[in-house]
């Protein structure tokens, strides 16, 4: 059942892809970047608006544009979608190149104009699987492929998150996380630690946390600059024996029963 669920998620990832002919060469870029943005029900309207404004501001910031220009090709390819328990498939923005200020403004405005839709549940596994399928035949040939995923809670819907993460990293995709900790919950522990242990993966993967609404724009900008440049933030030290329970979100859901595969 678990393997079937993961296979289903990977098939969902093909929805909304931009296809090109198999023999058509891709446009060379320094980075293929997918922004996977949490719009689950735990994100209230104010929080969602602040998050979106943070992405819009970060995409147009001089530091982000300078990082792009410093790359070998001086351009990146970028896409965007929103997720909760499922994918808001109509939220996906087509792959676009950001090379100039006008490119960045145009993409940011597409995000800004999107109507806000809230989705029940938090399925990081679905979000990762969907993002993983957006790279193939997208028309670009990047040195690196990154899924930038934001969220304010652990996986609590659909398949477990770690198999989806492992499937993505096996394809050479790096997953970075933005842990939204404005309303921390003692029930599941520090969200940035959960992201670090259970969500992110691949060479150089990292997590940045947001503690206050006013820090959204700065955190998102810092994250995007690091992703474009290929650098990492300083490591946050955690106790050596401290590890997040990657099934904590499922265990907190009323009526949850363990996946049979996990008991073998």
In short:
This protein is of the alpha/beta class. The protein is built from nine helices and six strands, in the order H-E-H-H-E-E-H-H-E-H-E-H-E-H-H. Helix 6 links the parallel strand 4 (140-151) and strand 5 (174-180).
What does this entry look like structurally?
InterPro entries: DUF1194, vWFA_dom_sf. It holds the Pfam family DUF1194. This protein is an alpha/beta fold and 264 residues long. It has a single domain, classed as von Willebrand factor, type A domain (Rossmann fold), CATH 3.40.50. It has helices at residues 2-12, 45-59, 62-69, 101-112, 124-132, 161-170, 191-199, 216-229, 248-251, and strands spanning 27-38, 76-83, 87-98, 140-151, 174-180, 207-210. It has a six-stranded mixed β-sheet with strand order 3-2-1-4-5-6, sandwiched between helices. A hairpin with a 3-residue loop joins strand 2 and strand 3 (87-98). Helix 1 crosses helix 5 and helix 5 (124-132) packs parallel to helix 6. The longest helix is centred in the N-terminal third of the chain and has 15 residues, at 45-59. It starts with a helix and ends in a 13-residue tail after the last helix. Residues 1-23 have low confidence and may be disordered.
Write the topology of this structure.
Elements: H1 2-12, E1 27-38, H2 45-59, H3 62-69, E2 76-83, E3 87-98, H4 101-112, H5 124-132, E4 140-151, H6 161-170, E5 174-180, H7 191-199, E6 207-210, H8 216-229, H9 248-251
Parallel strand pairs: 1-2, 1-4, 4-5, 5-6
Antiparallel strand pairs: 2-3
Helix pairs in contact: 1-5, 2-4, 2-8, 3-8, 5-6
